[in-house]
Amino acid sequence: MHYLSRFPKFCFFVAVSFWLLTAVSANASEKQFYDVRYKARLDPESGLADVEILLKGDTLPSTLTLHIDPERHINFDGNENLTIEEDEAIWKPEGKTAAIQYQFVIDEKKASGSYDSRITPKWAILRTDKMIPPIATRAPKTLYSRATLEVDGPKGKDWSARAPYSKNALGQFKLKDPGRRLVRPKGWMIAGKIGSRQDIIDGTDTVIAAPLGKDIRRQDTLAFLSWTLPELKKVFTDFPDQLLVVMARDPMWRGGLSGTRSLYMHADRPLISGNRTSSMLHELVHVATGIHGDEESDWIVEGLAEYYSLQILLRTRGISEHRYQQALKKLAKWGQESPNLLVKRSSGPTTARAVIVLQQLDEAIQEASKGEASLDDVVKALAKKRGEVTLKKLRKLSNEAAGTELDILNRDFLAGKKKP
């Protein structure tokens, strides 16, 4: 009886202790935030961007490691809290406010002599994730950043800037990168005397921007996307809600390059090529999927982009079934020059053969599933996971969609050692 009389008190003690532990644990798991301001002043005379990274908050990361390109990230200044070791800048901020400065070499010339990053007296085009390199942090797991990017032109010049982000009341880009504790800018940027066209296309805030000039087809490009982007988004349902397309003429590279929520396209590239493919749609698929290949899977990445550039045109009646079949025949002939797909970099003939393999894979999935599934289901899964794609991953997703094992992704066949 004496034991029973004490039992309620014991239960009360246990309950209170459990509540306290739960409260402490919940409090410890709450997110803490600090502010990061990236600031860049672009200077055509020196060809440099003067960059500052400023941190503010009650708690800051103990260490930030910038993975730099020593030829492009130069002249660091962070007092005694910064150490440069070959391709790393190791920063140990102290206090509630800390900053480092460096300069970024904007111009980057390709072997062809054209540029994929360039500044002139009137404009600049570059990748913000090149200017602000990858950064690893050492910090509590509950510590997250709120980040902005501020871009200024040369002193005394009225320059504007476009990036694939919205702006706050101060004119700063509000950066976002879900899942990342340290957010940094990513994607293409254009600044200077620029002209743009903008519209909301199927929920995506779409901007076509280029240096001022009458010979840039901003409106034509916007109209093309108004026609094709909704169909593309039926396949890639997680397509970004913001898209920036940067266009320019020589001396910029005469092709297309994708980035985060953005892409660059040379102004002379046709929206639909004579072979019925579309460089614009090709790069948009890259934007949509966000995938990259391992040492032998670049053909998957490039093949999907090219295949769906054809498919989207077919589905939107941009090309007829007859023209579509003609395009496949030409790609099949070109692809004979590259029997082995399992290479590090997908050349033109490799991508051409990849398109044919993926078209056959699409048909095989539809036939095995009796029309219940297609390659669309596979690429939706790849785009949702993003990151690295491998042959093993593609085979697994394809077999799951088909409901059976498909021989089309046999390694010997892909390497050109046997016929399907």
From TrEMBL:
Residues 1-28 form the signal peptide. It comes from the Bacteria. The keyword Signal applies. Keywords: Signal. This is Peptidase M61 catalytic domain-containing protein.
